[in-house]
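Posting for a labmate who doesn't have an account.
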Amino acid sequence: MSKVKVILQADVAGLGEEGEVKDVAGGYARNYLLPKRLVVPATKGNLKVVEQQRAEIEVKQAQHRSEARTLADRLATVPLYFPVRVGEQGRLYGSVTAQDVAAKLKSEAGIEIDRRTIELREPLRSLGQFDVPVRVAHAVTGHLAVTLHDQTVPPQASAPEASAPQEPAPSTETGPEALAEDGVPLGAVPVDTVVPASETAPEPFDTTGQAGQAGTGEQGAEGTTAAQ
């Protein structure tokens, strides 16, 4: 599997932060990162430009991380309740998806986040409270307390003992996630809804570097952790 060296132009969850130099799968760079202008090839000229901007980037990153931690702390104070229909033997009609969580978070708390940053590997299909991680930035994870309750019973009375409500986990800062077989980091999505991309560099970047020399046999794909 061929790799290409790129410079991140924005924070990408599961991959890295703006200004970092990374080796990524050629297909991932060609088909996703480069078209979205999340990276540029790590040519000598581009490396020189990013080094000239290093101090500015570090100041901006410190601010971005602070904003991400603030958002993560806020998520921990916003419990979400989903009234659901329950059939025989406690089976639910339907399920709650990452898209449902994102929509309710926006409508009830005014917080808009990309559903792809909600790390729900499969829809919720049982009563009770669930700790749902949200990757608000590359290395900052918040947590939501999501409760599914019988629509005919108040939330406190409908949750079974096995799923008794718990305090949501505190926000955490972690490193990049594992890579999938195709070289795309699991959950790798731009987080410009929380951490905006950098301003245009004072000197133009060379976009004709190594990425254009990558092999053509790979397919880049945008990772997703949210179940559709």
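Reply:
Got it, the structure tokens are right above this. The domain at 3-67+177-213 is CATH 3.40.5.10 (Ribosomal Protein L9; domain 1).
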